[in-house]
């Protein structure tokens, strides 16, 4: 411990010393930085910071100062004299004073960040941290920052810009990925041996997959070479092979004189440097050729190349060893190169982004240039002719982009007919239809005005019609100010009372059409004057009277006569509505992305409902016409009825509501007498008495008034009565008077009423006798007035006419026209005598006379409103080709709403079309060719290597000049013909001047005659002279003697192609509206009938090649008539008879239904929901009432009691009464009930009482007058409650299909035992009826699918071929609802375009490397440029030009299929365009080399590797990846390795790369060795990429080595024993020795001895026990004694647990009670983990 503590103290002292040294060094460095000049070791000058530049004016006249100190080395300040004055720094300097306005003159100029470089180590060493790098290395990026003038970008002092803003950072941290080594693939298979005899070489190669980056290791050798031997030795004398090798052709040059010729001649030199010298000589001989802009002359030159003979070991040999017949040509004629010439750049096009929008992408602009000279002879290719650059990158400086929104026109008329099914009988007359319907409108796109586009929350930017009506009802009207009326949705009439009155006034009445008057809220009359609206016109005059309309005219007159309300003021109020800005429509594509408003909505037409009236009241008393001013003795008796429901949708008003009858002695006040109480005898207990009665004077309305107003004397306060004494006859009270027998009196009939009473008890001895039977009945006259009834009859209100005498509530426009005014309505009112006719007005009540005139509002005049014309469609921006039709442009406008009530009609012209303004004709230029020059050959002096003329012969070139001719036949610049003149004619052609040794032929014969279309004609020639004996002249492939060509043929075959188009019906809409301009729904679209369908036609020539379709047909189509089947709706049967009422007693429902007759077809209206029997569930239910007791016993009154006695004198005692009883059908009215009206409480009792009608004799007593019994539910008492039937189905008008209706149900009073009783019983028991028996309902309309118009046909998708199609489409504006006709599946029509042949340039495959006239060396690979014709699906088609094609001549009876069988084939170049220009854009010749035997050469480029990204932790470090390919070096002769080139690789950028990772892979151990390799994440085995530090070992080693007998090194790195031996370990865990496993070879082995030798070894059990504190196995390998004890205790514990479990789980004794049956438990696995 002491040693440890001492070490800690020493370490702490050492660390503290380091901290002190570091602190002192920092102080020293800081002091050193502040000292600029030192005088000696003690004093030095110290300077402060420069102050601000001060000066009187801005500019360079400013001055800066700073403070100076003389500082001692210890840090304290001293006097300036102590510091050397010669070294005193400046304390003042001139400066540039910067002012605020200089901010616009200077700015920071910042360069781009440089590449990331590593942070230098100490001593400025920059190296890669290869061993320390894990993911990336820290680096630094730098950039230059300087202050510059904005005018000329010259740099100034940084302090100027620092005055305005901080200097941008010049450095920033960055990351550099870790070094990436080169990654190569596995080696390929070994190649074959380079020699077939003797010893040769084999090689194998590999490819570079990833190049080294960021300082990674270089690529290893890509080639592996090894010697190989063949069993057969090479024969003597064939050790070497000789090959003729040629070099590359030199550049084309022109010899100017003999010196130049000699400097450029070819020498057969075998030195390695002659090739470079030759190239330099040729380069020096090139001269600039003057440019002729109006004519191009072809210049010809010459090329040479080297020829030599090489041996198979790579050495050069004599040329004679390689050439036998002739020496290869080392010269040829060539075209002098001319580089591409282009014009200057055009001006930049306008930026594509001109406004600020949501996306942050910049715009772009383009500039172009055109070609003025086509490159020839290998001249430089043309650079890019188009350049694009970003513009308007900072979008904040741009104005806001315009916004576009959808607008809609006014809704059209509501129509019900489109909802009718095909079998509806109402289709014949649709004029009276009502109920639910649909209406449409047009949707168009407009540009939002600039002031509105900045306001995102502008209320006009959304359409209120898309909001539900409930939303408007939940918000007050002031939340929706100034919204046009067409934006309000339809609001149900029942919700109108919930709307504020102001809300209704702020919106025109067309939003509240034909709503009942009782639904409108109270509106003050003043508002009706100030807000012209149609709201009042369609409502009865009674409603106007309610709102004070009787004073409307007076108030209006005063309102308009007031000087403070001139007419101009009203005009100004309404002017904004008339002058509201309407935007012009634009193309609908500009509104793409925003939700299109609905163009179809549901609507409703109110069904006509007649006036519903109550029954007539009874006739009243005779009253004066006016009780306030009674006159005369004539009066009227009246009866009335009330309007239960105002008429709707009918012009007629309700009939008269009051009838009167003239009478005499009218009164206005009368006495009303109310009798009550018991008869009180005057004396005693019986006999005459009186009953008190109450007298009240009332008026004609039944209201109490003072008694003095009644003219008649008041009735007596009492009425005489009599109480029967004992023995008197007892008679009942009088019954009520019956109804009058007639309603009026005439000569033949009088009205009478009767009442009666009955004898209740006969008189006794001495009692009062009963009256005669006639006295038991009384009669009186009633309705004695004559049958003369009068009433007022009023006709319907006439039209609202303007009252010219008044100027009320008029609205004036600026031109003075009146649009709305107050008028009057008149009607005729006459007095009618019933059953007679019109009489004079005096016969009717004057006070009840209806009004004949009422004020009204004239319908507001509404002019037609249309949008402005849209912009004219654009005209072509290019010129017009000759003989082309003049293009047109069009514009359109849309009707927003049509005129009404005499307003200005809509214009007739909604679509205009005109020719485009005069477009310039495309210029006409043509090529003019000059004569061919003489055949140009290489001079013989060059061929022979010496100067001097010789006879020229052999192959050469002919050239000719080309010029451009304009319309005036004058030469113009050549670039004009390049743009407008078409393909340039060829300017060179090969030629040959025959030599003496050439093969000679006769002239060609004439071509033979053509035998027919598709045949060939031929011509012949023959050899002449010595040529017949020359072998090479007899080779037909070199010198053909027969030539054939196809005969011209003008026969063409027309065959249909592809499928038929859709059946296209005739257009029924106005064409011309461009696609997407507007959306409109038509309810009467034609979807079936006769139409036409089209099929494209291919036109083929005799070779089966496609040609122009105009050669076969005019239109390019074959068409035929077609038919689109009309949809058939689902057909149902007629209504069945009504079913019986659902309840036998009380209210119920009766039902009728329809069943399915025929299902729908072809997209007709679907059937309603079907039941299990495939029957349509269509039914109608209405309430019904079943009589509970249809029959009843009818009894008459009891007869007089007949005494059963012998003596006649007896007048009392028991007797007999009889009555008549019969069974009769119960009457539907006047039913009475004898139900007890007492409440039923089981805990209480009920009682009944009766009165004494006659007192008993002294000897007799009266029976009890009160009876009591217990309340027993449903026996002696009952409970009553209301019960309602089920709702009926929604009942509509007969002329309605859907929409609002009513449903009803019946109310019953039900007794607790289920018996239905009269409703009055429940009322008498105080039951409150809370049930609604009628309510509004709505039947959802079966809305058919509504589609938009077909768009115009689109442009053809392909300009040629058979894949072109034209499209037109339509969209779903309203999906089908309920049983409406569903939307058709075909929303897109396609039609094939006329099939025109496609011409394309085809680049052939590269040929093999061809060396002309030699065995090896430098050659070329070529590919052809061919004009081919195809069907438009090339290059997907097979591009073989040699595949046989169908021929009309070969098979004239061939039947062509619907698909073209022609494959791409060559045609004339004129069809594809300018071949020379196309050739100048393509690379058709590539240099290549064929290695000679023994040469060391490069392999072909490998294929490009997969695109790979530089990644950190599987995240991309960059966006652009890399691909790599490589070339390996192949060595054929080991002696020639010094001349081998270097292996190479190249990379290219790519997109869409992936992040690859690398990891080591190992095989299984094979002994102590295994294979280790690196594998990429995509499974490719590679070399490189894996970290070498993590490479697993390939050979395993044990330390110390396993030297014991029978031991070996185990995979865990420790020594173990072989199979059959056991390890004996030392105390340190190392192998001590191996001992044989006992019992394997000798069964009688000494187990004890062996076990005693066992020691702890590296087993899993021992490892498990090694962590225990108590070891069960001792050091000698034996088990300890306590381990045996623990084992025995565990065994006993297990036995005890088993015994205890047996006792607890022992089955109990069976009992006598049987067990309940158990159901079988079925387990089903439901995927639960617990199962």
Key descriptive features of the protein:
five-stranded antiparallel beta sheet, 1731 residues, disordered C terminus, mainly beta, disordered N terminus
Description:
It contains 18 helices and 101 strands. The longest helix is centred in the first third of the chain and has 33 residues, at 2-34. The protein is mainly β.
What's this entry about, in short?
With 1731 residues, the chain is mainly beta. The protein has 18 helices and 101 strands. The protein has a 5-stranded antiparallel β-sheet, with no helix packed on it.
List strands and helices in order, with pairings:
Layout lengths: L1 H33 L2 E2 L4 E5 L11 E7 L2 E5 L4 E2 L13 E6 L8 E5 L6 E2 L17 E7 L2 E5 L5 E2 L1 H5 L8 E7 L5 E3 L13 E7 L2 E3 L12 E7 L12 E5 L11 H7 L9 H11 L10 E2 L3 E5 L2 E5 L4 E2 L13 E5 L5 E2 L20 E6 L2 E3 L12 E6 L12 E5 L26 E6 L1 E6 L2 H4 L15 H5 L27 H5 L19 H6 L10 H6 L5 H10 L5 H12 L6 E2 L13 E6 L6 E2 L20 E7 L2 E3 L12 E7 L4 E7 L4 E2 L5 E13 L18 E6 L6 E2 L19 E6 L2 E3 L15 E6 L7 E5 L6 E2 L19 E5 L2 E5 L3 E3 L13 E5 L7 E2 L21 E5 L2 E3 L13 E5 L10 E4 L10 H5 L9 E6 L2 E4 L5 E2 L1 H7 L7 E6 L22 E5 L21 E5 L6 E4 L21 E3 L8 E12 L16 E8 L6 E2 L13 E9 L1 E3 ...
Parallel strand pairs: 17-85
Antiparallel strand pairs: 1-2, 2-4, 3-6, 4-5, 7-10, 8-9, 9-12, 10-11, 13-15, 13-97, 14-16, 17-20, 18-56, 19-22, 20-21, 23-25, 24-26, 27-29, 28-31, 29-30, 29-62, 32-34, 33-35, 36-38, 37-38, 38-39, 40-42, 41-43, 44-47, 45-46, 46-49, 47-48, 50-52, 51-53, 54-56, 55-58, 56-57, 59-60, 61-63, 63-64, ...
């Amino acid at each position: 411990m002491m040693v440890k503590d001492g070490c800690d103290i020493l370490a702490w002292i050492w660390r503290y010393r380091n901290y002190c040294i570091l602190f002192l060094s920092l102080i020293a460095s800081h002091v050193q930085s502040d000292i600029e000049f030192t005088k000696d070791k003690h004093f030095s000058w110290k300077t402060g910071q420069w102050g601000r530049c001060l000066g009187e004016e801005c500019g360079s006249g400013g001055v800066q100062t700073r403070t100076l100190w003389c500082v001692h080395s210890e840090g304290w300040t001293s006097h300036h004299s102590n510091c050397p004055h010669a070294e005193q720094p400046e304390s003042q300097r001139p400066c540039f004073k910067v002012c605020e306005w200089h901010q616009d003159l200077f700015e920071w100029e910042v360069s781009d960040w440089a590449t990331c470089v590593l942070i230098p180590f100490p001593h400025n060493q920059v190296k890669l941290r290869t061993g320390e790098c894990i993911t990336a290395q820290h680096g630094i990026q730098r950039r230059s920052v300087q202050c510059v003038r904005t005018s000329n970008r010259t740099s100034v002092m940084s302090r100027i810009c620092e005055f305005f803003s901080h200097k941008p950072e010049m450095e920033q941290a960055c990351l550099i990925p870790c070094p990436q080594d080169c990654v190569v693939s596995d080696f390929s298979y070994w190649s074959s041996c380079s020699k077939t005899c003797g010893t040769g070489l084999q090689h194998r190669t590999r490819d570079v997959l990833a190049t080294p980056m960021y300082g990674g290791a270089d690529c290893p050798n890509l080639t592996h070479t090894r010697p190989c031997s063949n069993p057969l030795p090479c024969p003597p004398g064939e050790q070497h092979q000789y090959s003729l090798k040629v070099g590359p052709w030199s550049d084309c040059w022109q010899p100017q004189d003999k010196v130049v010729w000699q400097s450029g001649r070819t020498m057969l030199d075998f030195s390695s440097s002659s090739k470079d010298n030759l190239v330099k000589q040729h380069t020096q001989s090139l001269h600039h050729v003057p440019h002729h802009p109006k004519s191009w002359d072809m210049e010809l030159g010459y090329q040479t190349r080297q020829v030599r003979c090489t041996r198979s070991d790579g050495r050069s040999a004599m040329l004679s060893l390689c050439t036998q017949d002739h020496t290869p040509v080392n010269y040829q004629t060539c075209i002098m190169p001319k580089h591409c010439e282009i014009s200057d750049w055009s001006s930049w096009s306008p930026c594509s982004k001109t406004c600020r929008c949501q996306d942050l992408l910049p715009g772009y602009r383009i500039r172009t240039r055109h070609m003025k000279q086509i490159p020839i002879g290998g001249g430089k290719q043309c650079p890019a002719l188009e350049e694009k650059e970003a513009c308007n990158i900072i979008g904040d400086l741009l104005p806001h982009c315009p916004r576009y929104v959808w607008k809609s026109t006014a809704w059209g008329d509501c129509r019900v007919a489109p909802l009718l099914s095909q079998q509806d009988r109402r289709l014949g007359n649709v004029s009276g239809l009502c109920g639910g319907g649909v209406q449409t409108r047009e949707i168009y796109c407009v540009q939002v005005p600039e002031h509105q586009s900045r306001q995102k929350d502008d209320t006009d930017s959304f359409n209120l019609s898309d909001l539900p009506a409930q939303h408007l009802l939940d918000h007050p009207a002031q939340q929706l100010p100034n919204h046009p009326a067409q934006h309000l949705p339809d609001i149900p009439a029942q919700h109108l009372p919930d709307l504020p009155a102001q809300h209704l006034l702020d919106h025109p009445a067309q939003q509240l059409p034909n709503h009942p008057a009782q639904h409108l809220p109270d509106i003050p009359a003043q508002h009706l004057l100030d807000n012209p609206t149609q709201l009042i016109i369609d409502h009865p005059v009674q409603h106007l009277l309610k709102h004070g309309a009787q004073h409307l005219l007076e108030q209006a007159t005063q309102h308009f006569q007031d000087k403070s309300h001139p007419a101009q003021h009203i005009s100004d109020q309404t002017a904004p509505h008339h002058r509201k800005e309407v935007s012009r429509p634009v193309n609908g594509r500009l509104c793409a992305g925003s939700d299109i408003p609905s163009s179809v909505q549901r609507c409703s037409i109110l069904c006509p409902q007649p006036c519903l009236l109550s029954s007539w009241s009874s006739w009243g008393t005779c009253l004066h016409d006016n009780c306030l001013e009674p006159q005369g003795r004539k009066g009227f008796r009246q009866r009335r009825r009330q309007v239960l429901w105002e008429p709707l949708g009918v012009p007629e008003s309700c009939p008269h509501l009051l009838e009167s009858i003239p009478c005499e002695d009218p009164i206005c006040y009368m006495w009303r007498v109310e009798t009550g109480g018991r008869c009180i005898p005057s004396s005693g207990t019986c006999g005459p008495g009186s009953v008190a009665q109450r007298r009240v004077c009332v008026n004609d309305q039944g209201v109490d008034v003072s008694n003095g107003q009644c003219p008649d004397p008041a009735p007596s306060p009492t009425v005489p009565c009599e109480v029967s004494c004992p023995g008197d006859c007892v008679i009942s009270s009088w019954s009520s008077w019956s109804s009058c027998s007639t309603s009026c009196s005439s000569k033949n009939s009088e009205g009478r009423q009767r009442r009666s009473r009955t004898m209740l008890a006969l008189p006794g001895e001495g009692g009062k006798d009963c009256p005669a039977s006639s006295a038991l009945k009384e009669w009186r006259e009633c309705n004695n007035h004559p049958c003369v009834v009068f009433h007022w009859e009023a006709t319907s209100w006439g039209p609202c006419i303007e009252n010219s005498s008044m100027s009320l509530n008029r609205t004036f426009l600026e031109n003075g026209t009146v649009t709305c005014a107050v008028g009057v309505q008149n009607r005729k009112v006459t007095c009618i005598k019933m059953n007679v006719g019109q009489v004079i007005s005096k016969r009717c009540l004057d006070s009840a006379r209806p009004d004949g005139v009422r004020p009204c509002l004239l319908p507001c005049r509404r002019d037609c409103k249309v949008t402005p014309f849209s912009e004219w469609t654009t005209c072509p921006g290019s010129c017009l080709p000759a003989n082309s039709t003049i293009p047109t442009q069009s514009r359109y406008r849309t009707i927003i709403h049509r005129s009404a009530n005499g307003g200005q009609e809509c214009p007739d012209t909604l679509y205009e079309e005109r020719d485009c303004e005069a477009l310039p004709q495309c210029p006409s230029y043509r090529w003019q060719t000059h004569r061919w020059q003489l055949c140009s050959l290489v001079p013989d002096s060059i061929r022979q290597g010496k100067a001097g003329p010789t006879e020229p012969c052999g192959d050469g070139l002919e050239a000719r000049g080309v010029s451009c001719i304009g319309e005036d036949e004058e030469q113009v610049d050549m670039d004009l013909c390049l743009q407008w003149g078409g393909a340039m004619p060829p300017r060179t052609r090969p030629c040959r001047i025959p030599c003496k040794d050439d093969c000679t032929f006769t002239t060609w014969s004439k071509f033979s005659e053509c035998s027919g279309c598709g045949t060939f004609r031929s011509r012949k020639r023959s050899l002449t002279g010595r040529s017949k004996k020359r072998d090479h002249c007899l080779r037909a492939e070199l010198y053909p003697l027969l030539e054939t060509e196809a005969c011209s043929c003008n026969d063409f075959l027309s065959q249909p192609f592809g499928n038929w188009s859709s059946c296209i019906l005739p257009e029924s809409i106005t064409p011309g509206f461009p696609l997407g301009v507007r959306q409109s729904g038509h309810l009467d679209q034609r979807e079936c009938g006769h139409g036409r369908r089209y099929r494209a036609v291919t036109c083929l020539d005799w070779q089966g090649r496609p040609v122009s379709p105009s050669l076969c047909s005019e239109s390019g189509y074959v068409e035929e008539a077609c038919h689109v089947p009309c949809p058939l709706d689902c057909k149902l049967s007629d209504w069945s008879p009504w079913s019986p009422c659902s309840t036998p007693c009380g209210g119920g429902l009766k039902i009728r239904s329809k069943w399915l007759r025929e299902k729908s077809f072809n997209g007709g209206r679907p059937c309603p929901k079907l039941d299990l029997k495939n029957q349509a569930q269509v039914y109608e239910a209405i309430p019904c009432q079943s009589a509970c007791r249809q029959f009843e016993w009818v009894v008459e009154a009891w007869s007089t009691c007949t005494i059963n006695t012998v003596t006649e004198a007896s007048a009392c005692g028991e007797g007999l009464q009889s009555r008549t009883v019969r069974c009769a059908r119960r009457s539907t009215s006047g039913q009475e009930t004898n139900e007890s009206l007492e409440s039923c409480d089981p805990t209480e009792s009920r009682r009944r009482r009766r009165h004494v009608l006659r007192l008993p004799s002294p000897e007799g007593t009266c029976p009890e007058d009160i009876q009591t019994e217990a309340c027993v539910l449903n026996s002696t008492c009952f409970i009553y409650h209301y019960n309602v039937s089920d709702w009926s189905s929604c009942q509509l008008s007969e002329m309605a299909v859907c929409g609002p209706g009513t449903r009803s149900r019946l109310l019953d009073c039900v007794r607790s035992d289920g018996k239905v009783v009269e409703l009055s019983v429940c009322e008498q028991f105080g039951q409150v009826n809370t049930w609604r028996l009628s309510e509004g309902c709505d039947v959802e309309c079966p809305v058919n699918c509504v589609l938009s118009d077909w768009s115009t046909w689109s442009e053809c998708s392909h300009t040629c071929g058979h894949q072109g199609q034209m499209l037109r489409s339509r969209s779903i504006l309203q999906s089908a609802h309920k049983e409406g006709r569903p939307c058709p599946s075909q929303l897109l029509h396609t039609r094939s375009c006329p099939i025109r042949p496609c011409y394309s340039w085809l680049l052939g495959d590269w040929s093999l490397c061809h060396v002309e006239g030699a065995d090896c060396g430098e050659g070329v690979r070529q590919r052809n440029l061919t004009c081919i014709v195809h069907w438009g699906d090339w290059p997907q088609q097979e591009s073989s030009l040699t595949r046989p094609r169908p021929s009309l001549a070969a098979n004239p009876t061939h039947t062509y299929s619907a698909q073209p069988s022609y494959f791409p084939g060559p045609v004339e170049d004129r069809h594809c365009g300018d071949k020379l220009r196309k050739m100048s854009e393509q690379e058709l010749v590539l240099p290549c080399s064929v290695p000679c035997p023994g040469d060391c050469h490069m392999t072909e480029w490998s294929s490009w590797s997969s695109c790979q990204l530089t990644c950190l932790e599987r995240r991309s470090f960059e966006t652009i990846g890399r691909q790599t390919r490589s070339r390996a070096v192949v060595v054929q002769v080991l002696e020639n390795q010094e001349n081998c080139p270097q292996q190479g690789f190249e990379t290219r950028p790519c997109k869409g790369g992936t992040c690859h990772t690398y990891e080591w892979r190992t095989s299984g151990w094979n002994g102590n060795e295994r294979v280790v390799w690196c594998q990429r994440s995509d499974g490719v085995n590679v070399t490189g990429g894996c970290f070498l530090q993590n490479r697993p070992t390939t050979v395993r080693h044990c330390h110390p080595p396993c030297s014991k007998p029978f031991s070996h090194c185990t995979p865990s790195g420790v020594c173990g024993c072989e199979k059959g031996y056991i390890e004996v370990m030392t105390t340190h865990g190392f192998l001590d020795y191996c001992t044989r496993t006992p019992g394997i070879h000798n069964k009688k082995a000494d187990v004890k001895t062996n076990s005693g030798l066992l020691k702890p070894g590296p087993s899993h059990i021992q490892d498990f026990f090694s962590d225990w504190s108590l070891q069960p196995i001792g050091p000698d390998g034996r088990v300890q004694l306590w381990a045996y004890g623990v084992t025995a205790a565990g065994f006993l514990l297990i036995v005890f647990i088993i015994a205890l479990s047996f006792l607890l789980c022992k089955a109990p004794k069976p009992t006598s009670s049987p067990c309940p049956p158990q159901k079988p438990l079925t387990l089903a696995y439901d995927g639960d983990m617990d199962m």
